[in-house]
Amino acid sequence: MAGLHHLYLTVGPARFRVASTWRQPLDQLAALYKDYPASQGGYADFTVRLEPEKPWRRYIRPSVHISGDFWLPDAAPLPLSQCLLAAEMGMNLQMALGWRRHLLLHASSVEKDGKALLMTGLSGSGKSTLSAMLAEKGWRFMGDEFALLNPDTGMVHSFPRLISLKNEAIAAMQAILPDSRFGPLLTGTPKGDIRHIIPPLDAVKRMADTAKPALLLFPRFGYDPVLRDMGKSEIFVRLTQASTNYVALGETGFQALTKFVDRVPTKAMDYQSGEQAEELIDSLWSQL
Amino acid sequence: MMGDARPLIDALRAPETVLSLDGTGWTDLISIARAESLIGSLAHRLADVAVPEQIQPVLKDAIQAADLARRQALWEADCAGRALAPLNCNTVLMKGTAYVAADLDAGVGRSIGDLDIMVARDQLTAVEELLLDAGWEWVKPDPYDDQYYRDHMHELPPLIHRERDRMIDVHHTILPLTAGPTPNAGAMLDYAVRLDSGLYVMAPADMLLHSIAHLFADGDLAGGLRNLWDIDRLVRQFAGADELFWMELGVRAKLHQLEPHLARALRLTARLYATPVSENLSGSTNMTDHFYIRRLLARDGWGRENRKFTRQAFYIRSHWLRMPPLMLTRHLWTKWRKA
Amino acid sequence: MSQLYRTTAPEGIIQRPLDSMTLIFQKSSGITHMIADPVPAILEVMAEDSLTARDVAQRLAVSYDLEDSENAADVVLARLAELCTLGLVEQV
Questions:
Q1: Which of A44, A176, B95, B141 stands the most exposed, by the fewest C-beta atoms within 10 Å?
Q2: Mean pLDDT throughout B239-255?
Q3: CA separation for the pair B244, B276 (Å, rounded)
């Protein structure tokens, strides 16, 4: 059986060993994650595996099957040209199914003055793009995919993986960021075009710094700008749906989430442009 | 490095062997243990060992995950017990749920998936109705599979609870009806032991024999290291508590036509986990044991199953064990056509 | 209506009121239930006693100044049946 290439990667509190039949995804990861801490003596929390779906698919129309310590039985393979996406999905999968040290919220997060702004919502809400944008405007980027809530302290931990931009958001960020911050353009993925950006160096250097959750937003892109109050029951239910490990954490998850809902001011935010969102966020932030 | 599942076997058998592992060795061990669904058992087993601080949180997570699995399994058992209460039949818990319900060593840290229960065959229809009333639904309403299960298998087609999203398998015996040996299901039910909850578990010898039948008859020895670890734990606990256990085990193995299976399982667990076993029952090493060992250890340090050929060979064999050839062909054909 | 009910292991649940709803975390199952009025009140007045639906309705009438009627007992009975399915209440 063929051996595997591999590399170690540390993102926030999580340590990954990414193993692959091909060098290509690992080379791309190594370049994009070059400022992140590498191996910690060979220790890892999770192993991700990128392998051909069938042995002959290593060379012929190569397709990448994503698995590892935690896996989904029906995860569809991706073409080798999208192997970077496969690696990122593999790491997401380990976190979503295996991480238990924090309550995982499917949310982006940025920090200012030790306080965190969390944004959560369905795909297309713009939470990822908003976090990337704010990261260029004086906020510290903490993550665009998962916010990690510490059940003991109530603090948010950073998980600053590559920022994943989709479709229209790519051009918008290309207008303000140098090319050196971008990964390869991946076309025709299951989610359309995807291009990753490397978070600001500050976000990487300070990835162990936690922040106190100060504001939670449910952004919705494409509607007249407005801020709306939400009932606590609705917030609670939507956060349980936005958490991959709420059930797995049992009582710990319940305590952490009810405390969060009790303490963190929350609004639904509709917006049509980055500028509008920034204005709304600034107005809320100044009142905290 | 990256060879086979031996680091896991070593760590379970003799926890102090992990002291010699470096970082990569630990990462390999964790991947193997997760792939074999033994990470919770391993974490408990290493409770008294000086584990490097880099790995302590991984093991702590595994212990908490197993605690949750245990709680959920007991709750599912309670739910099934409540649903079946009007029937007044003996509901026997099986496998992982039985181990945790009876508070056995085999349940410590064990991963538990579906709920498996056994009831008397003549109660099946009534059980089915009560479960459907209480919120369980058929997993796949497929007439072919359904008929196949009802005609040839040892269980009802699987049911899933529509709110809790958990599966239940209702058995009326422990092996497919087409398998060679015919265990005496009635005797297993008669000997079952009542727990405080009102649910039952099999008597020690029957419980061990079921675990053994499960190891050889279900699938292609996949997950075999976990099954064999169950067997090791059960043997040590039962034989340690009752000096007549081996005698009883021999009698029950004969009754259930599982003597060769018992002998093989005892040899394998003695070989891999150093389980103290009765040589009267285990017999002496058989040449083919070697293949079983290789199959059981077929897992590399990345967590991948390796030695595909051995695996394939076992898969075909495991189907032959359960189904007469013609029926097998028909079964596969139907599957191929649908694929 | 003579069937007696009691709550299962009150120490086994954690209640958290959130605006209009109440969350109940059930330790034995790990399930979070979201319940609306009058269920939290029913659980509260039952305390640790074994009661019929009628008894519960009467206690609600006293504690919450609700109208006690045959109809109220029917409502309570329906809620008790649901709570039994969830394992929060059991028949005695």
A1: B141
A2: 97
A3: 15
pLDDT at B1 over 50: no
Read off the tokens for B144: 């072919």
Q: What are phi and psi of A38, to 5 degrees?
A: -95, -135
Task: Pick the residue from chain C with its C-alpha nearest to A235.
Answer: C18
What pTM was estimated for this model as a whole?
0.91
Q: What is the pLDDT of residue A54?
A: 76
- Summarised one tens digit per residue, pLDDT across range B12-21 is 999 999 999 9
CB atoms A43 and B34 under 8 Å: no
Q: Do B72 and C87 touch (CB under 8 A)?
A: no
Bridge-based pairing state of the strands A212-221 and A266-271: parallel
- ipTM summary value: 0.94
- Nearest residue, CB atoms, C30 vs list B71, B82, B135: B71
Radius of gyration of chain B (CA): 20
Residues near B256 by beta carbon (within 8 Å), at least 6 away in sequence: B181, B183, B184, B187, B188, B206, B209, B213
Q: Is the pLDDT of residue B320 over 70?
A: no
B79 neighbourhood in chain C, CB within 8 Å:
87
Q: Do the Cβ atoms of A182 and A231 come closer than 8 Å?
A: no
A residues 249-268 near C, CB within 8 Å?
A: 250-251, 254-255, 258, 261
- Contact at 8 Å (CB) between B133 and B83? yes
Res. B331: pLDDT tops 60: no
pLDDT digits (tens, 9 = 90+) for A221-267: 999 999 999 999 999 999 998 999 999 999 999 999 999 999 999 99
Asked if B78 has any chain C CB less than 8 Å from its own CB, the reply is: yes
Whole-angstrom distance, CA of residue B42 vs CA of residue B30: 9
Please enumerate residues of B whose Cβ is less than 8 A from a Cβ of A: 2, 22-27, 30-31, 34-35, 52, 54-55, 57-58, 61, 64-65, 67-68, 71, 300, 302-304, 306-308
Tokens of C55: 């008894």
Binary contact (A49, B308; C-beta < 8 A): no
